[in-house]
Design a protein that fits this description.
Order of helices and strands of chain B: HEHHHHHEHHEHHHHHHHHEHH
CATH superfamily of the largest domain in chain B: MetI-like
Strand content of chain B: 5-15%
Strand order of the largest sheet of chain B: 2-1-3
CATH superfamily of the largest domain in chain A: Periplasmic binding protein-like II
Shape of chain B: extended
Largest interface: A-B, 50 and 46 residues
Number of domains of chain A: 2
CATH topology of the largest domain in chain A: D-Maltodextrin-Binding Protein, domain 2
Largest sheet of chain A: 9 strands, mixed
Number of strands of chain A: 13
Distance between the termini of chain A: 71 Å
Number of helices of chain A: 16
CATH architecture of the largest domain in chain A: 3-Layer(aba) Sandwich
Oligomer: heterodimer
Radius of gyration of chain B: 31 Å
Helix content of chain B: 55-70%
CATH architecture of the largest domain in chain B: Orthogonal Bundle
CATH class of the largest domain in chain A: Alpha Beta
Shape of chain A: globular
Order of helices and strands of chain A: HEHEHEHEEHEEHEHHHEHEHEEHEHHHH
Number of domains of chain B: 3
Structural class of chain B: mainly alpha
Number of strands of chain B: 4
Largest sheet of chain B: 3 strands, antiparallel
């Protein structure tokens, strides 16, 4: 019996060793582009990848949806075939992330700004359209808000939209939104909550930390509900609950025009044109970042970038705009294209 | 004495109705529990099938496509390279313009071209490559319709709604109704759903790459977890001394069986990808992670089935002079095998439905190309369901349900085979 188990163990470990040798071999070459990053950019990046795979002789790139932060973490952990070539992000890269990249031997990263995405506050089609100012959204959703005399902060007392402004409907405040891990939440907080809270003089008197807490903390008494990362689910919940509002990306509004309607924010409706010309206040740029070291090592990266930055893709009437991506203005497209063709290193203005 | 017996009798008689009633109520409660469970199940299947069955059909549009030599093969040499590079979407656009000659203007033409899927050109290309004789002919071809057209034809989009609330505008609706009137719109069996990989165009998307990914993953899991699990179980059950160490091992195995699967994903990320440097998103790594997850289940099932073989079998074999190993392999194993296999199949079924650990090792990814080996990037069926559920396009809703139905069918087959094995081969003592 000793002999049996010994030979069995030898067999299994031999098999394991053989496996590992094979993996090491497989790792030596990779003939497809590996892309990670933001789930907001995922629907756009995948369309480009699919076209690229179909129209060229290269393999279709593999795209993982890891979130912007998770994407940079993977992207910056090293250079070599086992690390991704491109990461997508729904915000600009941070200096700390560039430093991390440099520490791990990734000296140069090319930035591709691919377009804009709007964030909408929408409700069920059958209910009246909301017209909100960002201050009002802040008052509805922050945990602590300035009191009526403007001298300090009190726990959010507002139950109904009409409590905030008599012109708003007398409907209980109920907003479904993404969890803190989501890039959409980051952008919403920055573009709506921060802008909204800075309109109040009392906020200016606070210390930096206290100000951030006051502006960024969402209320936890049931008026703001974290509904998960799945935007489709939020759309379905809005259908079932006509008095609720939901926060999600413009592409989901675009696909569900018959079910939900976007609220006007600061008097502007979330429409393709208003996001493109910047008059709709809640929009953010989307980016792809490319590891320059891998260009030429992994086949097809330059060709993929050419497809991504072609007028057929990101142009005014490109197929990405059909998916709800808001194109960059033409002059900006030209600047980005030049930087991409020259594989210029990203620089963050101080 | 007799009056005492009389009293007992009376008390029993008084209580008897109550006891019957209690028993009846208990039975009813049990039956009720089963019915509630069945109702949930029925609701689950009702919504799944109700949402999903339309995904097995796909709308097609019949057009006269002119595969003129001048546009496809100007050299006239039928060189596959030239044939492959021709603009087939342009050919389809010409066919649409020929069908609706009155449409003019860039925006209107854009709307017209949007009726047919951007994938139709690729399919036409493959058709011509497979059969170059088509060049120079005009063929009547059923072309796959765009997902918005598909949703409209299937009734998932309201034709009477206002134009601004539909993704199909009034002029497009007019063209579709014209096509419908002369029978050029039809729903055919959606073979792409079963033969192609993921796609961002719902009408071109399929589950095949996910099915192949799941298959490779289960293959690795089975190849590792069955031998390891059975060997562990035999050693622990038949050879190992009963002491504190084996007790500790046993407690740990039982514990591992209850660990949330995401933890195994984290372990897989740290061990297989970061330490051993295996590729991300590969079914091999997925299989290894799922092996860790199913191993305790297999060990527990195998030990239970070894334990259920009566000691008399072992004693008889030993009594006629068989060695311990002969006893186990000639007499105990054959009797325990059906139980071991049942446990393994149930473990594999659980592994098939698992998606959380795959998140950590990069298998939640957009994969178009069908993987050819366990080392190619791949995704798995439950992950495909998750990805589609998160896609903005309306047509992915029905595809999500359809993919769940396929996954359930696989699970049903696996669990049914486990039951069959048990019924056919298991011996009760």
């Amino acid at each position: 019996m000793g002999k049996f188990s010994a030979s069995f163990v030898a067999c299994v470990s031999g098999l394991g060793a053989a496996f590992i040798v094979q993996f090491a071999h497989a790792q030596a070459a990779r003939d497809y582009i590996s892309i990670v990053g933001s789930s907001t950019v995922y629907p756009f990046s995948t369309v480009v990848a699919e076209r690229f795979g179909r129209t060229t002789d290269f393999s279709t790139p593999k795209i993982e949806s890891t979130g912007s932060g998770g994407g940079f973490k993977l992207f910056c952990s090293g250079a070599g075939v086992q690390y991704p070539d491109i990461t997508n992000s729904s915000r600009r890269v941070r200096q700390s992330e560039i430093d991390e990249c440099t520490r791990n031997g990734i000296a140069e990263v090319v930035e591709v700004k691919i377009g804009y995405d709007g964030i909408v506050l929408a409700n069920f089609k059958g209910a009246p359209i909301y017209r909100l100012a960002r201050e009002q959204i802040y008052l509805a959703l922050a945990k602590d808000v300035p009191d009526s005399t403007g001298s300090g902060l009190i726990p959010n007392p507002y139950e109904s939209w009409a409590d905030i402004d008599a012109g708003l409907p007398d409907v209980r405040i109920e907003v479904l939104g993404p969890p803190p891990t989501s890039g959409t939440r980051d952008a919403f907080v920055e573009l709506v909550m921060l802008a909204g809270c800075e309109a109040f003089p009392v906020i200016e008197t606070l210390a930096d930390d206290a100000r951030d807490t006051a502006c960024f903390t969402m209320r936890e008494d049931g008026a703001f509900i974290e509904a998960g990362e799945n935007d489709n689910l939020i759309v379905q919940k809005l259908e079932a609950n006509p008095s609720a509002l939901g926060i999600f990306g413009f592409s989901f509004l675009d696909q569900n025009q018959d079910k939900v309607q976007g609220s006007l924010i600061d008097g502007v409706a979330p429409e393709f044109d208003s996001i493109a010309d910047g008059s709709y206040p809640v929009s953010r740029p989307l980016y792809s970042y490319v590891k320059k070291l891998h260009v030429g090592e992994i086949p097809g990266i330059e060709e993929f970038l050419a497809e991504l930055t072609s007028e057929a893709a990101w142009g005014d009437f490109g197929y990405l705009s059909d998916r709800g991506l808001i194109p960059l203005p033409q002059t900006e497209r030209r600047t980005v294209l030049e930087a991409v063709q020259g594989l210029e290193n990203v620089t963050l203005s101080p | 004495m007799s009056s005492h017996a009389q009293g007992v009798k009376e008390r029993v008689a008084r209580g008897i109705a109550r006891r019957y009633r209690r028993e009846r109520n208990f039975r009813l409660a049990g039956l009720g529990a089963v019915l509630v469970g069945m109702a949930f199940l029925a609701f689950f299947f009702y919504t799944l099938i109700g949402n999903g069955y339309t995904a097995f059909l796909q709308t097609h549009i019949l057009l006269e496509v002119e595969l003129s030599e001048s546009s496809i093969d100007p050299d006239g040499e039928r060189d596959p390279q030239t044939l492959g590079r021709a603009n087939y979407q342009g050919v389809i656009r010409n066919a649409l313009m020929a069908r609706f000659p009155q449409v003019e203007g860039r925006n209107d033409l854009r709307d017209l071209f949007a009726l047919v899927s951007p994938g139709a050109g690729f399919e036409l290309r493959n058709q011509v490559l497979a059969n170059p004789e088509l060049v120079g002919q005009t063929i009547r071809q059923w072309l796959v319709a765009d997902d918005d057209v598909d949703m409209l034809v299937k009734g998932h989009m309201d034709r009477t709604a206002e134009e601004s609330e539909r993704r199909i505008n009034d002029s497009q609706l007019g063209w579709i109704e014209q096509l419908e009137a002369d029978g050029s719109v039809a729903r055919h069996f959606n073979h792409r759903f079963f033969t192609s990989g993921d796609s961002r165009d719902p009408e071109m998307s399929g589950i095949w790459s996910a099915v192949v990914g799941s298959f490779f993953m289960l293959l690795v899991t089975l190849a590792l977890s069955f031998p390891l699990g059975v060997a562990t179980a035999i050693y622990l059950e038949e050879f190992a001394p009963k002491n504190r160490w084996t007790d500790l091992i046993e407690v740990n195995i039982n514990n591992l069986a209850a660990v949330p699967s995401i933890v195994f994903g984290l372990l897989g990320l740290a061990l297989f990808i970061n330490f051993f440097g295996l590729p991300r998103s590969a079914p091999v790594v997925g299989g290894l992670v799922l092996t860790l997850m199913t191993l305790p289940v297999v060990i527990i099932a195998a030990r239970a089935s070894l334990m259920s073989v009566p000691p008399s079998i072992r004693e008889a074999a030993l009594g006629v002079g068989a060695s311990k190993m002969q006893t186990i392999f000639h007499h105990v194993m054959p009797l325990a095998l059906p139980g071991m296999l049942t446990g393994t199949i149930i473990g594999m079924a659980r592994a098939l439905g698992e998606s959380a650990p795959l998140l950590m090792i990069g298998m939640v990814a957009f994969i178009v190309d069908v993987p050819e080996s366990p080392l190619d990037p791949a995704t798995a069926l439950p992950v495909q369901v998750y990805l589609w559920a998160d896609s903005p396009e309306r047509a992915f809703v029905e595809r999500t349900s359809a993919a769940i139905l396929v996954l359930l069918a696989f699970l049903l087959v696996m669990n049914a085979s486990a039951i069959l094995l048990r019924k056919r081969f298991e011996r009760r003592w």
